Amino acid sequence: MPYTLVRPHKPAQLRPVLFVPTLLGKILRDKLCVNKGFEKCPSELLREVERVAQKGSFAQGKGELNSCGATRQGLQLLMEKNVHQLLDLGLTSVRALHAMGIYPILLLVSINEKNAKKLKKALQRLGATEEQLLDCVRREEAQLEQVPCLYGTIAPHTWSDTDVLVSSVRAAVADEQKKTVWIEQDLL
Question: Taking 60 as the threshold, does the pLDDT of residue 22 lie above it?
Fold first, then answer.
């Protein structure tokens, strides 16, 4: 991988969280919101972030700048609540978030066939299968190489059921929050 110029950033607020694979993120969001410290990000704000990310450029037109500013302001207000906002976004939105000055915690939960079976009931509630989860993992792990930041990982051998996984996620988010965020200078 080629070198990229970066600069350090120490976030003053709790950072939003984005899970890989996104399918597993839907299960984790419901379980994490039961406890204090986590909250689901409103869907209307997420749709706006995705719309801005799909445009690809933040200086295309006057309307685009206004919408990007409104989206950033909305996310900043949520971050000031002193809870981790749980984002239901794809990895394609990370660059858009960085361009807005918002640096989410990316957390890869590695899954193998054995762990996927432990999530069978939760996946059925979403109308998904173990195969779909494993496909999602493979596809999104490949996309992680294009993301302009580092990410945390939870290994498959560290959790045995969803309760242990939620505990592992809480610990990993707390650990990632303490770290310095390295930001590509190209995005500035």
Answer: yes
Domain of 106, CATH number, reads: 3.40.50.300
User: pLDDT by residue (tens digit) across 160-175?
Assistant: 899 999 999 999 999 9
Q: What type of residue is 60?
A: Q
Does residue 65 have a pLDDT over 50? no
**Number of domains comprising the chain:** 1
What pTM was computed for the model? 0.85
- Residue 18 lies inside a defined structural domain of this protein: yes
Q: Are 49 and 97 in contact (CB under 8 A)?
A: yes
Closest by CA to 140, choosing from 165, 107, 115, 174, is: 107
- In angstroms, the CA 185 to CA 106 distance is 19
Is 1 among the domain residues? no
Structural domain span for residue 39: 6-187
Rounded to 5 degrees, φ, ψ at 86 are -95, 115
